[in-house]
Design a protein that fits this description.
The protein has eleven helices and ten strands. The chain is of the alpha+beta class. The chain has two domains: 3-89; 106-336, BirA Bifunctional Protein, domain 2. It has a seven-stranded mixed sheet, sandwiched between helices. A three-stranded antiparallel sheet has the order 2-4-3. Helix 1 (3-20) runs parallel beside helix 3 (53-89). The radius of gyration is 34 Å and the shape is elongated. It starts with a helix and ends with a helix.
Length: 337
């Protein structure tokens, strides 16, 4: 037996003694460092100095067998400590009635309700980037660089004039139409950004859900049917819905959708500005320029688009006084609504 083989046998006995008496995972990490890293490097270095090929082959096998033993015992000990930690610190059979479960965020709850309704009507969910190009956020939505509607957006530019934080999720609709041919029936939920001061009704970052339907024979009647159904499913059959002519550069004709105030029942209150009505959606038939811009034949295809601010809708749905409450970590409020 060579000196190196005798040394390995001696080290093996010492290792087995040491690892059998370990008390914690820190001691195991020390053993692992001493044997698997430092000592194995020494052994392989000594093996290189052996000249006799037969002896070198025999020692190489002994060293590899020793390494496998080290790895096996260390792995078994790691499993033992892991099992001990789990069983000693946690007893999953104990029942504790006072455990307080978390609650979903109000915005997520409301969005899931809206998503479920629209999916039941045949819409699918599509998402896109929040850092967007001017081309998709403005130009292809019938808003060239000189268009005054851009001032309404109050945009955050990253690299002016081309890279920006999207000011609406309509950019997702453009990207979808560029990739797919009609028929298209999608909603595009997500975060949008506009330069706004924080007050009870505004924040510079908020959430939108926009919808798009393009196919042959789509009319304003289809738009009305979808949106009236959506609002009545969310707020109840008793609400009234009206459509007011308005202007959006990417739809023509365009309509703002009002619903009867859920707080006062159209009698007039602070929530509705004493008008009895609350504006909840923007909508319209997709402008022919938008359809042609994505390569659709506007004489063959038509469509409608709509968009709602989820935060504003949540204020009405939950009866909150101001939008800032949706961003506060008041868990007691989440339990109430």
């Amino acid at each position: 037996m060579s000196n190196l083989e005798a040394e390995i046998n001696s080290k093996e006995k010492l290792f087995l003694e040491e690892i059998s008496t370990l008390k914690n995972i820190n001691d195991l990490n020390t053993i692992k460092d001493v044997y698997l890293k430092k000592y194995m490097r020494v052994l392989y270095s000594n093996l290189k100095t052996v000249k006799d090929l037969e002896e070198k082959k025999n020692l190489g096998k002994i060293i590899n067998d020793f390494k496998k033993l080290l790895e096996l015992k260390i792995s078994e000990t790691e499993d033992r400590f892991s099992l001990k930690t789990t069983s000693s610190e946690y007893d999953f059979t104990i029942r504790k009635d006072s455990i307080k479960l978390g609650s979903g965020h109000p915005l997520i709850k409301l969005y899931k309700k809206i998503e479920e309704i629209l999916i039941s009507m045949g819409f699918s969910v599509v998402q896109g980037p929040e850092v967007e190009l001017d081309k998709y956020n403005f130009e292809m939505l019938n808003m060239p660089s000189h268009h005054p509607a851009r001032d309404m957006q109050d945009t955050f530019y990253i690299t002016a004039p081309n890279v920006l934080l999207r000011s609406h999720t309509s950019s997702v609709q453009i990207r979808t139409m560029l990739e797919k041919s009609p028929p298209i029936q999608i909603i595009s939920p997500g975060t949008v950004y506009r330069v706004d001061d924080i007050d009870p009704q505004h924040t510079p970052m908020f959430y939108q859900v926009e919808g798009l339907m393009v196919a042959e024979g789509i009319s304003f009647a289809n738009l009305k049917a979808v949106l009236i159904t959506l609002l009545k499913e969310v707020f109840g059959e008793s609400i009234e819905v009206r459509f007011r002519p308005t202007y959006y550069p990417y739809t023509e004709p365009s309509a703002a959708i009002d619903m009867s105030c859920t707080e006062c029942g159209k009698r007039g209150c602070r929530t509705c500005g004493y008008s009895g009505w609350i504006t909840v959606l923007g909508s319209g038939m997709v402008h022919p320029n938008v359809l042609e811009g994505v390569g659709y034949d506007s004489s063959k295809y038509s469509g409608f688009a709509f968009g709602l601010g989820l935060n504003r809708l949540a204020l009405i749905y939950y009866g909150l006084g101001e939008i800032r409450k949706l961003y506060e970590n008041d868990i007691s409020l989440w339990d109430q609504i």
